[in-house]
Amino acid sequence: MSEAELVQEREAMREAEMEDLRHRLAEVTDELTRQRKQPVTVHVTTPHQTQRLKVFTGFAPNGGNECTFQAWVQQIESLLLTPDVQPCDPRILASLRGVALNAVKAAKTNADILANLRCLFGCVEDTEARLISLACRKLKAKEQPADFLLQLWEELLDINKTASMTDEELQKKLYRIFCTGLQPSLPLLALELRNNFGFPGTAAPALTDVLLTVRRTTETLHGQKPVTVQSSAQHVTPDPIDYDKLAEMVASKLRVDRPTGRRPRGPCWQCGLLDDHFARDCQNPPNPGKVASEKAKIAPRAAYSLNGNQSTRGGRR
Per the record, where are the segments of Polar residues compositional bias (predicted)? Predict the structure, then answer.
């Protein structure tokens, strides 16, 4: 290629670049002209409006007059109580910007505006998450079991507004959550409930029956105070001595002093849970991983018990 052809090609490339720059400049000029012709939203303060409405944009507040969605809804609900509110009040539209304003362009009434924005930016409560959080509740140190039961029932009724469970499912879930929450603090009460109504997860006793049993058992447990055999014998008159009555009194006091109930069993070999039930009665789906982990925890203790109980003959070496 000759030098003249190279010069001609460079001139053509430069001309093409200049044409591209002219085209981009024309696009920018048209965009600026279009933005200048758009109407400007002006906030008008009416005599009935005592304070300026805060702005909601659909994003997190970035300072200034912006606010969160909950704060915006509160001020709009107060505004709707005024007598001069219009069907599609311009003050409400003036308090919206950006994405929030685009979402209510087709709304005809104030109720439609709030409904559309609540659907997009309102908080949605997860029913499963609330049930899991409720199942993890435990009885507090100074909390009464009856109050704990009633609180669980109120929260379950509130959750059931979106879950739509039957009465039997509600009673079964309440009984299971209540027994699980009692197990660490009041195992004797949990054992009494299980003996009366059955295993948690399968039985569905009524709330009134459970509440009556809880209050009666709680009064019995609080009314029985541990008394030693010596202090009981001091109250018996020395002459005449009723040995049968004394033996019965000592035996009753020993039964109060010593803990009752069977020794807690290990985990279920089907689901791996530690809620004191057999594998043959388990209603939960099989969980081999959980069972394997529980067996791994028990194996070192069993080996230690066997080694510790072995007797060495012949004394020290």
Answer: 306-317
pLDDT of 80 > 60? The answer is: yes
DSSP code string of 152-215: HHHHHHHHHHHH---HHHHHHHHHHHHHHHHTTT-HHHHHHHHHHH--TTT----HHHHHHHHH
pLDDT at 219 over 80: no
Convert the pLDDT of each residue in 34-78 to its tens digit.
776 665 554 444 444 445 788 888 887 777 788 888 888 888 888
Query: Tokens for 161?
Result: 């507004």
Place of tokens 């059955």: 198
Q: Is the CB of residue 193 less than 8 Å from the CB of residue 185?
A: no
177 exposed, middle or buried (CB, 10 Å; 0-12, 13-18, 19+)?
buried
Q: Are 192 and 214 in contact (CB under 8 A)?
A: no
Note whether 161 and 154 are within 8 A (CB). no
Average pLDDT over residues 185-200: 87
pLDDT value for 102 = 86
